[in-house]
């Protein structure tokens, strides 16, 4: 007979069970780390050049592509010339993460949370790549929901069924996959 008074594990208990310092894929306002995708590296370099030339750059990208994170990270590194808004002398657009960068990005996020192992099955990464279309915010939302689904089921890796669970929970996912 099951005990109906059994309490569901807390987030902290899930984190301990996985050996994590913090929740993976969650925004970290204190950190200045940004995943070094080609598009982000190029935009960061252009920001540096634009500031050195005392100009202003227009940075564009889809919602969730990392514009705010990139600018916050870059601004933390400035020691002079913060008022760059008189002229726009350069523009850069952030692209979605390239397919080949998605597994690297996911592992980078997991390592930032304190775990140094691959937690995603390749098929799960494929589903995340397709559903997120490379958008870092959507990818984080889906990966976090999938991680919680895996943790709740006491799994130690994230399987496609955890991604499908996440797809049902995250409205921002413009998934082109079929749910089982």
Describe this structure in words.
- It is a single chain.
- 47% of the residues lie in helices and 6% in strands.
- It is mostly helical and 180 residues long.
- The chain has 2 domains: 11-24 and 97-169, Helicase, Ruva Protein, domain 3 (Orthogonal Bundle), CATH 1.10.8.60; 38-94, no CATH class.
- The longest helix is centred in the last third of the chain and has 17 residues, at 136-152.
- The radius of gyration is 19 Å and the shape is elongated.
- The chain starts with 10 loop residues before the first helix and ends in an 11-residue tail after the last helix.
- 31% of the residues are buried.
Present the secondary structure layout.
Blueprint: H1 11-18, H2 38-52, E1 57-61, H3 67-76, E2 90-94, H4 99-112, H5 122-132, H6 136-152, H7 160-169
Parallel strand pairs: 1-2
Helix pairs in contact: 4-5, 5-6, 5-7, 6-7
The major β-sheet equals: 2 strands, parallel
| Sheet with the most strands: spatial strand order | 1-2
Secondary-structure element series: HHEHEHHHH
CATH class descriptor name of the largest domain = Mainly Alpha
Structural class of the helix and strand makeup? mainly alpha
| CATH-defined architecture of the largest domain | Orthogonal Bundle
Q: Estimate what percentage of residues fall within beta strands.
A: 5-15%
Which overall shape is indicated by the principal axes computed on the Cα atoms? elongated
Task: Give the number of DSSP strands.
Answer: 2
User: Could you tell me the radius of gyration in angstroms?
Assistant: 19 Å
The span between the termini is 31 Å
Number of domains: 2
């Amino acid at each position: 007979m099951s005990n109906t008074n059994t309490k569901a594990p807390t987030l902290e208990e899930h984190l301990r069970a996985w050996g994590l310092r913090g929740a993976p894929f969650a925004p970290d306002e204190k950190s200045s780390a940004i995943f070094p995708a080609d598009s982000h590296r190029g935009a960061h370099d252009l920001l540096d050049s634009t500031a050195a030339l005392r100009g202003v750059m227009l940075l564009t990208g889809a919602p969730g592509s990392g514009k705010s994170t990139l600018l916050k990270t870059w601004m933390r590194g400035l020691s002079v010339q913060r008022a760059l808004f008189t002229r726009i002398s350069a523009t850069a657009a952030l692209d979605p993460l390239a397919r080949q960068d998605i597994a690297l990005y996911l592992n980078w996020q997991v390592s930032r949370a304190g775990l140094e192992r691959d937690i995603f099955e390749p098929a799960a990464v494929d589903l995340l790549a397709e559903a997120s279309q490379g958008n870092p915010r959507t990818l984080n939302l889906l990966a976090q929901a999938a991680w919680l689904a895996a943790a709740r089921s006491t799994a130690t890796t994230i399987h496609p069924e955890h991604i499908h669970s996440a797809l049902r929970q995250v409205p921002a996912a413009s998934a082109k996959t079929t749910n089982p």
